[in-house]
Model the fold of this input.
Amino acid sequence: MSKIISADVVVVGAGVSGIYAAELFANQGLKTLLLDRQVEGKNGAQWINGVAIDMLRAADLPAPPEHCRYAHGDRFVFKMALGEHRFLIEDAQEIFDVDMRSYGAWFLARARQAGVETYFGVEVNDVELSVARLTAIKAVKKSSEQPSELTFHASLFVDASGLPAVLRKKIPSLQKQCPKFAPNELCSAAAYVYTIKDAAAALDFLTQNQVRPGDIFATLGLHGNYSLLRTHISRDLKEIAFLTGSLTVRHYPSAQKIIHDFQKTHAWVGSPLFGGSRLIPLRPPLAHLVHDGLALIGDSACQIYTPHASGIGIGLVAAKELVSALQPTLAQHKDFGALSSLVYYERNFHRNWLTLLASADAMRRLTLRMPPETMQAIYESGLINTAMVRDVLLQKTVKIRFAKLPSQIKALCRHPKLIRILVPFLSHAFFAHVGPFILSRVGQRYKHTPPP
Done:
């Protein structure tokens, strides 16, 4: 027999975005439950992740606490796999390498202090719909004893379960808008920290690559244009942190294999300390982020800054956008789980963030269509400068800098074929700018919905 549990809000997925959403709802005086299929301590990311300060500010969050910061790179050095062209960023102090294990525990402590009730080791297996509205989810509590069945009722459910999207996939209308991912729409990402067993050899590696201890050194384009091997050797030469990524295309190695291959050819790399890997969706945010009784945040909504497959910051922003959009409805004691209320989260998120995320993804898709030699020509031509690379690193809109414009125009004149190649990117960027305007003003989902 199933145990029935009622709440105002149920959040599925205890990564930092889901935890933060639960905390914000609890702060509104709502009875909020947080579910995750993992046991506590294994929920969410278990590795080092870059977190941009601008994203945290947009989510109304402070900089990560000191005990959550793995390291702050002295400099970022980006090198192309073809040729010797490189970008040196010396002022990228607006991004932190964060130990997500500690960061997740910090968020969880905040959520519990706000009154969030947690259920770990709970796996969702079905949903209940009343007409079209999501009204309940069915789950199984896994334990060493006999598993128990649980049914959760709520006014609103939040799917923060990541790529599995355990609630979204149960809603036919939402599932239709998200067909199966192609291999070039999934990033295999891995992040691990290893010991260094020969400090002198590690220092030789740094010297050969013209970087120094404490620098973050990334090689781009090892296995196709969308691939990365990022290393961060600590100042004391005791640890090396890897961050790798590649597409799930058959002839490309996985992110974990990229690390393994590096270790095989660099005997000074010791044993792994901690880390993990996962698949990350590479699409612009879904057009529909809500359904009656359900809201999507994070990877389940494809809220990803796709040029470097980063979702931590934008997922936290989405949690903030969701609760902020519902505050007028909550103040008027109306049905905050109704579609007529939730569409304002969808509208506001697209209005505020679609330009950045869609234009960034247009840039990613453009690079996939280019031969590596063309990408190398673009880098070496000066069309892409260090300031633009810094914008992408910090998940900002790539700005036109008029001081750099004359040299970029000269570069285009020297390489006229690049104009034809870049036209698709410029058109995508244009539609990314007008898209939010159209969506928020003439979209059918908002036409007959009065403001809350």
The longest strand covers residues 269-281. DSSP finds 13 helices and 20 strands in the chain.
